Amino acid sequence: MSKVHPYLPNSVPEVKERMMKEMGISSIAELYSDIPEDLVYKGKLNIPGPMAEAEVKEHVSGLLEMNASLLCPPFMGGGVWPHHVPSVVDEVVHRAEFLTSYTPYQPEISQGILQSIFEYQSHVCELVGMEVANSSLYDWGSAVGEAALMSSRVNRRTSILVPDLMSPSRLSVLRTYAEPAGLAVEKVGHDGETGLMDLEELKEKVGGDTSAVYVENPSYLGFMEENAEAIGEIAHGKGASYIVGVDPTSLGVLKAPGEYGADIVCGEGQPLGNHMSYGGPLLGIFACKHDNSYIRQMPGRIIGITETLKDQRRAFVMTLQTREQHIRREKATSNICSNQALCAVAAGVYLGLLGPQGMRQLGETILARSRYAQRKISGLPEVEAPIFSSQHFKEFTVRFQGKTLKQVEKTLHARRIQAGIPLKGQFPRIGETSLMCVTEVHSKVHIDALVSALKEALE
Q1: Are strands 314-318 and 184-188 parallel, antiparallel or unpaired?
Q2: Domains defined along the chain, listed by start
Q3: Which residues contact 447 (CB under 8 A, 6 or more apart)?
């Protein structure tokens, strides 16, 4: 029997009937007819009956109390990492002036948010060694996809080469972007000992139809791409663009991509003052060199600085707007309409707080603690950490010989430790291997607790 809900006006039977008649359907179920039948839940959801607000609060609190708290920060990364967020970052981004600044289409009354984004762009340019940055994209994956399309628009070529050890999730997003545009995505193999991109294979595969070569530095598995400069030279030698994906927390200790020939830089800005938040929202970093053919094809928004005509006062504006979808529609460089402005403001505050010296100290801390963890874990019996001989930053692989990952994880969970991303399903050849992550929030006590739990799991 239909019931009228006090807060849902369209629950009135007569109103529902009129709406369905207008749409040409006889039941609400027809709205979901595109969903495959085997995916439709046939049972009845076990949802408690009507409750008063106080009862709902008590019920949900009881469910939350069933959650187990972790003994230490999670040793998991893979794209979303545990990092310290200074309290001043939250204080700034929680101000109503920023929370309600959804989109600055009226620059005259949006100077505050425009200046904040301009400063974010300036920090990003300095960090990655490029001249122009946009005001953010959705995440690293969407940034890679947009970079691939951008390079193809610039040189009119039809394929992009990527490392075979690239993040599977980012590769999936890249393919989603590339396929409708007729852009082929081809993998380049790696050296079995170091994990680094195979330069000879790259030379064989890069050609006249190669739009871009993409690398991740550090890689998804944590090792630093020591041949980054040589890869860029090979790409440029064939007229292709060079795209570099980065974890920005590494740039206090590693060269900026602009210093070794990158044309486009993309990456994940979540570590820069944004909480993990169960996996989102994230922040796509995107920057390119100062070349008009690149800038004109850059996706998203670019905030610029100018002067007023009347009294020459400083003013912030959205520049080169004819690239954007609200001006050019189908001819736009992308359909990035809304963006991650609040996350970008957080990143701008974070980078402004740390400065160059703070970023260096952050990188050195992560490097030292992750190396300590690698050394302690590799000392355990029948454990290899990492599996590649290259230098690693923040993340590293751990391969177990005598136990399966499920057996190890069972012991870790019992000790309230969350560690590692299983890699066997992503890269079957590397066996019972886990991707672990150590950042500045992991103390020696935390790392030792992990090692102790692993030792117990392996006995």
Answers
A1: unpaired
A2: 1-41 (no CATH), 87-351 (3.40.640.10), 356-458 (3.90.1150.10)
A3: 369, 372, 373, 376, 438
pLDDT in tens, 145-166: 999 999 999 999 999 999 999 9
Q: Which H, E and C letters describe 57-94, residue by residue?
A: HHHHHHHHCCCCCCCCCCECCCCCCCCCCCHHHHHHHC
Give the C-alpha separation, 146 to 336, whole Å.
Answer: 10
For 108-143, write each residue's pLDDT tens digit: 788 999 999 999 999 999 999 999 999 999 999 999
* Mean pLDDT rounded to a whole number for the chain: 93
SS3 17: helix
- Both structure tokens of 179: 């396929």
Q: Are β-strands 421-422 and 314-318 bridged in parallel, bridged antiparallel, or unpaired?
A: unpaired
Give the Cα separation of 153 and 148 in Å (integer): 9
CA dist 195 and 202 (Å) reads 14
- Give the largest CA-CA distance in the chain: 77
Q: Is 193:168 a contact under the CB 8 Å cutoff?
A: no
Surface-to-core class of residue 52, CB atoms within 10 Å of its CB (0-12 exposed, 13-18 middle, 19+ buried): exposed
Cβ neighbors of 279 (< 8 A, separation 6 or more) are: 80
- Find, among 62, 122, 148, 154, the residue nearest to 351 by Cα: 122
How far is it, in rounded angstroms, from Cα 272 to Cα 247?
Answer: 10
Cβ neighbour number for residue 122 with a 10 Å cutoff: 16
Residue 201 CA to residue 236 CA, distance in Å, equals 16
For residues 134 and 381, what is the distance between their CA atoms, to the nearest angstrom? Answer: 48
Structure token digits, residue 213: 């070569």
> Measured between alpha carbons, how far is 173 from 160 in angstroms, rounded to an integer?
14
- Note whether 101 and 289 are within 8 A (CB): no
**What is the DSSP code (8-state) at residue 419?**
B
- End-to-end Cα separation, the chain, in angstroms: 60
- What is the rounded distance in angstroms from the CA atom of residue 213 to the CA atom of residue 57? 52
The four Cα atoms 327, 331, 332, 333 give a dihedral, to 10 degrees, of -160
For the chain, the helix, strand and coil percentages under 3-state DSSP, each to the nearest 5: 45, 15, 40
Q: Which amino acid is at 452?
A: S
Question: At 4, is the pLDDT very low, low, confident or very high (cuts 50, 70, 90)?
Answer: confident
Instruction: Give the pTM.
Output: 0.89
